[in-house]
Design a protein that fits this description.
The structure holds 2 protein chains of 2 kinds. By secondary structure, chain A is α+β, with helices and mostly antiparallel strands. In chain A, 40% of the residues lie in helices and 18% in strands. Chain A contains 17 helices and 12 strands. Chain B is an alpha+beta fold. Helix content of chain B is 39%, strand content 18%. The two termini of chain B are 36 Å apart. The chains are: A alpha+beta, B alpha+beta.
């Protein structure tokens, strides 16, 4: 950014010119807007190292900073039975010590460089990320590569993280929304599906995981042929490739097992799973069913349909439950599209006394979305999705975030170049078809976490489905 | 980053789910931001900064009113009013505000703090005149379509926001408890932004009308436009839409800020539906941009800003007696406070946490800090600056903040410089001056466990 001196203050001329202006201002309708600027997405450059590590580079020279994301294409989906939480724990351990640096040294160096180094895992991938000013690139990249390639998994630090996780799990029982999220997944997917287990593990699995398990997970999945390095910022592709070869060129490839998914459990007739949280002033509501994988051919119709149902502020769920009825601070819906089909979820935190009424309104909207969506509403939804796309590419971190799913799910790197056309092509019929296919009011899993003594009678009177009492993990309560 | 400035209540909850965290930068020149600042005849201050790197624009309006301006019995009113500002105006039927913006590809939100209420839109550059027209209509013509039903609806929504962010959250009531104990009853920061359920119930339509006429006037506001726009067009639109809004008849009243000292350590206990107790310690400090403010930010980072910080390293990493620890210099427009928060492990006590915290603080007071600690803090804080300037909306917010709290929007380099100037001696001195004073100590305990309270049995 070039320095320009602050321009002198100047008062806009007042008096007669404002009177003239007022006489011609038509406030009865909003101003007509110029056509939106055309979307020019930054070009994506790819390189590949001999060991199979792919590199994806986007230049962005607005600020002298860069984002690096090493995306390993395996996450919690690969947690073995009994070791739920292994992927997230392995990722968390990466910056707890390498063969040449201990945890405190890593943290000290990171802060001294003014860099931000993070290591996390989701369902589909594990990511080591770095954001740093390019002036510190040499030192920061050395630290980044060390953490990614030479973790030591020190036993003492593993025990420290284990203890923190167990305390986290204890504190989780304080939080209604967190209980609802975990129970919903457990009930919807069941015990035999990876998605039915929490990414952060259970008490049993957290106690069971050994250092060998962590090392084995890392050795199995953290391989250059199972990874892509995304780089966005004030960089040049040739220099990036040179640095990547120097830092990651010695990383040895190996064959990596693919995670296989079975078929999801069949849907049950609509049932309300009630979890008691005495004294809760709000009830946490999660309802839905198994949705779709990211690679679904119906990606764009589902995106549009979900936007209408429970996306931005003017969505049907939010307008109904918040702006019409005042039951909640916000209501939403989402399709979590993963390597396999993740959940479709409609959700809100609702005032306890209106839990029953909220459920009825949720159900009304899930039924109504299956009818033809009026054209003006469809048009607004599509315009919003199309026109807000450029804002996602404003910063280096934003751009990197947009590239991650392309890398995880093998989508073409020019995906966003045709995004707008695909959205524009979605029809009323397309929306209705996916609504009918994926939202079935007669086969919903409904989880409610709240004060049972207050809310159960009203819920029973809704006759939306039988009530099944569950414990904090979503397991049936023995009568 | 552990430094927090004023917790805000927002119109809608924004949940950012990112696979990558935000960004920081080390020793780097902080760029100066070119701003044109001018004032309309009705007193509206306009801040313009062009940036044509991406075809986006952000519009942010600051009204210089917040919870610190609320009357007794009307806590939470400024934030309730913020919600009401989205309920339509004379030329904007209710619901159209969001629909028109979304159809133009724009997002919007608002937030309220102790000191100010802001409203912002961001999206494709083509949406600029729409955002300006909408913001002008509610600045000038809100009341004609305001009615009891709208007030009642947003009252319900705000009560839900309070439930979702305070009453149904573990330890959620800690902040309001601390503020009420630390700041005297006649201090504008005595109560929290969200307000009490009773006071929210008491708000009337007449209150709304009076509040609007008093505070929502152009001479009590700034309008910032940042991004890809044509300067002449923007000025034309701003004049066209905002000129006709009359100046407020009187200057908006400003709260009186009593000076005070905390006369003795104050020990409090709060029962909550939590598994583990939590310790909060709070000291009265200074307002934003006070000469000691930057050193206090640095102190907070050194105490708990990263894994190698004093409290984290000792309590969480080495002794492993705490689950988490944090420290904040919370400096606002009129005053400030410093907090240290510790959650013990399940088999540890808040009293032990208090002893360890006090010991670590005393170490800094007695022996100061190292150059390495100082460098880590400053480099990380400097990184925050570049982060905040990475988006149009971030720049708009910073310009508005500087204009109101520093008196000029051209302040980012001075802001960065005050951290550059902080010395180890400064950090030691502010620890002694402020953390050596009396404090408020709150223990949040599981129900029935008041005996865990730090500082005496209740």
């Amino acid at each position: 950014m070039i320095v320009v001196a602050v321009l002198a203050s100047a008062c806009v001329k007042a008096g007669t010119s404002s009177k003239v202006a007022e006489a011609t201002v038509d406030r009865t309708k909003p101003p007509e807007l110029a056509p939106p600027p055309s979307l020019t997405l930054p070009p994506v450059v790819t390189r590949t190292l001999p060991n199979g590590l792919k590199i994806v580079i986007v230049e962005h020279h607005e600020l002298p900073v860069a984002d690096f994301a090493l995306v390993v294409r395996t996450g919690g989906e690969a947690d073995p039975a009994g070791q739920e939480g292994l992927a997230t724990l392995t990722a968390a351990m990466l910056d707890e010590g390498t063969t040449t640096r201990n945890a405190l040294q890593i943290a000290d160096q990171e802060a001294y460089l003014g860099a931000r180094l993070r290591s996390t895992s989701g369902w589909d991938g594990s990511i080591v990320s770095l954001h740093v000013p390019t002036a510190q690139l040499d030192s920061a990249l050395a630290l980044f590569a060390d953490v990614a390639l030479h973790p030591a998994f020190p036993a003492a630090d593993l025990e420290r993280l284990r203890a923190e996780r167990l305390t986290d799990l204890l504190q989780l029982t304080d939080r209604g929304p967190a209980i609802a999220n975990r129970a919903y997944d457990a009930i919807l997917f069941g015990a035999n599906d990876p998605y039915g287990h929490p990414l952060e593990g259970t008490e049993a699995s957290t106690k069971a995981i050994t250092r060998d398990d962590v090392q084995h997970f890392y050795d199995t999945y953290f391989r250059p042929n199972n990874a892509t390095l995304i780089v966005v910022g004030d960089v040049r592709p040739d220099d990036v490739q040179r640095r990547a070869q120097a830092l990651f060129g010695g990383w040895s490839r190996a064959s990596v097992p693919q995670v296989s998914f079975g078929d999801p459990a069949p849907a049950h007739p609509t049932t309300i799973y009630l979890i008691d949280k005495p004294g809760a002033p709000q009830s946490s509501v999660r309802m839905g069913s198994v949705g779709v994988a990211r690679t679904t051919p119906e990606y764009f119709p589902i995106l549009v349909m979900n936007s209408i149902l429970g996306g931005p502020f003017t969505s049907r769920l939010n307008q109904n439950l918040r702006e019409t009825h005042g039951y909640t601070y916000g209501a939403f819906s989402s399709f979590s599209m993963r390597r396999a089909a993740g959940p479709f979820t409609a959700l809100a935190e609702v005032v306890a006394s209106k839990t029953d009424s909220s459920l009825l309104q949720f159900m009304a909207e899930l039924k109504a979305i299956r009818d033809t969506v009026p054209t003006p509403e469809l048009t607004k939804a599509k315009q919003y999705l199309e026109l807000q796309l450029p804002a996602r590419f404003e910063t280096t971190s934003g751009i990197a975030n947009q590239l991650v799913p392309l890398v995880l799910y093998d989508l073409p790197l020019d995906f966003y170049n045709t995004y707008v056309q695909h959205i524009e092509g979605v029809t009323q019929h397309d929306v209705q078809q996916v609504a009918e296919q994926y939202i079935d009011p007669t086969h919903l899993t409904i989880v409610v976490v709240g004060d049972r003594s207050h809310i159960e009678p009203g819920i029973a009177r809704t006759h939306l489905g039988p009530i099944s009492l569950r414990d904090l993990t979503g397991a049936p309560i023995q009568p | 980053m552990r430094i927090r400035r004023g917790v805000a209540c927002c119109r809608t909850l924004v949940v950012a789910v990112l696979l990558m965290a935000g960004s920081q930068a080390a020793a780097q020149q902080i760029p100066r931001i070119a701003v044109e600042r001018y004032t309309l005849p009705n007193g509206l201050t306009v801040l313009l900064h062009e940036d044509h790197s991406v075809p986006l624009v952000a519009v942010e309006t600051w009204y210089h009113v917040g919870s610190s301006d609320e009357q007794p019995g009307r806590t939470g009113f400024a934030h309730l009013f913020e919600h009401i500002m989205f309920m339509g105006s004379e030329h904007v039927p209710v619901g159209q505000f969001d629909k028109w913006l979304e159809a133009a590809g724009a997002n919007n939100n608002g937030s309220t703090t102790q000191d100010r209420t802001n409203y912002y839109e961001w999206g494709p550059s083509s949406m600029l005149p729409l955002a300006l027209w909408l913001d002008a209509d509610r600045m000038g013509w809100l009341l004609p379509t305001m009615d009891q039903a709208k007030v009642d609806l947003q009252r319900d929504v705000v009560k839900n926001e309070r439930r979702q962010s305070v009453d149904n959250v573990p330890y959620g009531r800690a902040d309001e408890t601390i503020l009420a104990a630390l700041f005297p009853a006649n201090h504008p920061y005595h109560h929290d932004v969200i307000g009490s359920m009773d006071d929210l119930s008491a708000a009337t339509l007449q209150d709304v009308q009076h509040f609007f006429r008093t505070y929502y006037v152009p001479n009590n506001a700034t309008l910032a436009v940042v991004g890809d726009f044509n300067r002449d067009s923007a000025k034309t639109w701003i004049g066209r839409y905002f000129d006709a809004i009359p100046r407020g008849t009187e200057a908006a009243p400003r709260p009186t800020v009593p000076s005070f000292t905390v006369a003795r350590d104050t020990f409090l206990v709060l029962e909550d539906r939590v598994q583990i107790p939590r310790l909060y310690e709070a000291w009265h400090t200074v307002k934003i941009f006070h000469p000691d403010d930057a050193a206090l930010d640095v102190l907070a980072y050194i105490l708990a800003g990263d894994k190698s910080s004093r409290l984290y390293k000792d309590l969480v990493y080495e002794q492993q007696v705490a689950q988490d620890v944090s420290a904040y210099q919370e400096s606002m427009h009129l005053d400030g406070l410093f907090q240290i928060v510790v959650t013990p492990k399940p088999d540890q006590t808040p009293a032990k946490m208090a002893a360890l915290v006090n010991s670590e603080v005393q170490q800094v007071i007695d022996h100061g800090i190292t150059p390495r600690e100082l460098a880590r803090a400053k480099n990380t804080i400097r990184a925050q600056f570049l982060d905040r300037l990475a988006s149009d909306l971030g720049v708009a917010s910073q310009l508005s903040l500087y204009d109101y709290y520093a008196g000029t929007p051209d302040y980012v380099q001075q802001d960065a410089a005050r951290y550059d100037k902080v010395t180890a001696a400064d950090v030691q001195r502010v620890a002694r001056t402020y953390l050596g004073q009396h404090k408020v100590v709150l223990t949040v305990v599981p129900e029935g466990k008041r005996a865990l309270m730090v500082g005496g049995a209740r």
